[in-house]
Amino acid sequence: MVGANLPNDAVGSTTAVQGQIVLAGGTVQAEQSRFTVDLSTLQSDDSRRDNYVRRSSLETTRFPTAEFVLREVRGLATPLPVSGPAQFQLAGDLTVHGVTSSVVWDTTAIFTTDGTTGTAGGATGKAATSFPFSQFGMQIPRVFVVVSLEDNIRLELDFRLARAG
Questions:
Q1: How far apart are CA 35 and CA 19, in angstroms?
Q2: Mean pLDDT of 112-134
């Protein structure tokens, strides 16, 4: 670990995320409100770490995707804001490594108006959640060159949503 700044976060990222949130009368339509991530595309600053995580922790050959099904939006006004900032939570079921568990994402967003019509446009923001490896049946990675590793996975999603219809 000579030359390494400690503590250090291992950060993997991907743009291989697809999904949508569908609301009807302020109620989440869970059968349509889901996001899927292609875990085989996660990349960090170290290809050896990426290969280890895909092969040993996430086992992406057996479990290539993670999926979040939204069940509830907490603390967001209805009707949705036309513009301005908002803080709220997204609660639902996350499936990783073949295990489904409930999680809550703390979310901040900025709602924007359509510049042409002046009506509600969409939102950009960030959602974050964290949990221990064991919540999804995964072992903490054990590699001889790593001094120690926290039992915490933090997920962050930067998003841009557009209103449909």
A1: 4
A2: 83
The reply to whether 105 falls in a domain is yes
Exposed e or buried b for every residue in 32-66, given b needs 16+ CB within 10 A?
ebbbbbebebbeeeeeebbeebbeebbbbeebeeb
Taking the C-alpha atoms of 53, 59, 60 and 64 in order, what is their torsion angle to the nearest 10 degrees? -130
Residue 148 lies in a domain: yes
Domain range enclosing 62: 17-162
Better-scored residue on pLDDT, 28 or 140: 28
Q: What tokens were used for 116?
A: 């042409």
Total domains, the chain: 1
Amino acid at 49: R
Which H or E element spans position 19?
Answer: strand 17-20
8 in a domain, yes or no? no
List pLDDT tens digits, range 127-147.
999 999 899 998 877 765 554
